[in-house]
Amino acid sequence: xxxxxxxxxxxxxxxxxxxxxxxxxxxxxxxxxxxxxxxxxxxxxxxxxxxxxxxxxxxxxxxxxxxxxxxxxxxxxxxxxxxxxxxxxxxxxxxxxxxxxxxxxxxxxxxxxxxxxxxxxxxxxxxxxxxxxxxxxxxxxxxxxxxxxxxxxxxxxxxxxxxxxxxxxxxxxxxxxxxxxxxx
Length: 184
Ligand code: MG
Known about the structure:
- By secondary structure, this protein is an all-alpha fold.
- Helices cover 69% and strands 0% of the residues.
- The chain is built from ten helices and no strands.
- The structure holds magnesium ion.
């Protein structure tokens, strides 16, 4: 297996990219908390943080982060060719590839993830709103959507897990499901 990128290195890189762009796990967990709290009054921030961390272990999510942040950074450095440079730099309103990548990354967590992503895309809550608001030369055209997808996935994941616990599904089954959802 020559030249193959190790999975662990991709995981580390994806997490570092988020950090470098000023997004913490807690920022994302706060959105998850807002989304899921109305359905579960006992929900804690710790559970939301854990869910975000699990979603960040998923390869499809990591790849979306790497692609999206790379394009944002290249646009900031004015290294893209025209007209893509201007489209991404100005977050052109009819450009939808940022949403397409994020939506693709939300598909692995089912319909709750997809509909929650759509809601977050429209409402722009928490850190998403901060990222979406233009600030000097910073470009977050892709990052705001990717954060929306991470939060939506973590929220969907929690909704399903909480139901399993309420129904007293065995811990073995819950762990089996967790392993299964992290594949891919
Ligand atoms: Mg965007």
